[in-house]
Design a protein that fits this description.
Layout lengths: L3 H17 L16 H7 L2 H9 L17 E5 L5 E4 L3 E2 L7 E2 L7 E6 L6 E6 L5 E6 L9 E4 L4 E5 L4
Antiparallel strand pairs: 1-2, 1-9, 3-4, 4-8, 5-6, 6-7, 7-8
Length: 161
């Protein structure tokens, strides 16, 4: 039989865990592209799997895409959906590739209340993969900063004619 103290401890621990761990958008079933956990592990690199399927974060300034300056498109590493144009990329000084606007109908957002703060999670609208967060400290014209994990993106350079 469970004591009141044990029941209270279970409730408190569960509440604390829900504050620390974000709800996984990737586990939702309404996405066009879905895979089993084992399939995602085969498709994604270990770092991309941690970020995209478990809301991890790559270390700042570790992504080659932070230093990418060619014209092109940034696509989802999980399902290849085009997400951002290089025309919207800017140097945010944060250590992660940053954009002021996604491509139309490319991303979705959800509330992320982990780490005792409210943030807005950004995920791929087609596969649900976690991409990063959006903040309201970006440049004009939107004032937004889509701070993306480079391992969640693939870059395709524009082919010159």
């Amino acid at each position: 039989m469970t004591t009141r103290r044990e029941a209270l401890a279970t409730i408190l621990f569960g509440s604390a865990a829900s504050l620390l761990l974000p709800a996984s958008a990737a586990s939702a079933s309404h996405f066009e592209v879905t895979h089993t956990d084992a399939e995602w592990r085969k498709i994604l690199s270990p770092a991309a799997y941690d970020v995209m399927r478990h809301q991890g974060t790559e270390p700042p300034w570790s992504s080659p895409l932070e230093y990418e300056h060619r014209k092109g498109t940034y696509a989802c590493a999980g399902c290849d959906l085009p997400l951002f144009s290089s025309d919207t990329k800017f140097e945010s000084g944060t250590g992660w590739p940053s954009f002021f606007r996604p491509l139309p109908h490319a991303v979705e957002t959800s509330a992320d209340n982990s780490l005792f703060e409210e943030r807005t999670e950004v995920h791929c609208r087609r596969c649900g993969g976690h991409l990063g967060h959006v903040f309201d400290d970006g440049p004009k014209p939107t004032g937004l900063r889509y701070c993306m994990d480079g391992v969640a993106l693939k870059f395709r350079a524009m082919v010159s004619a």
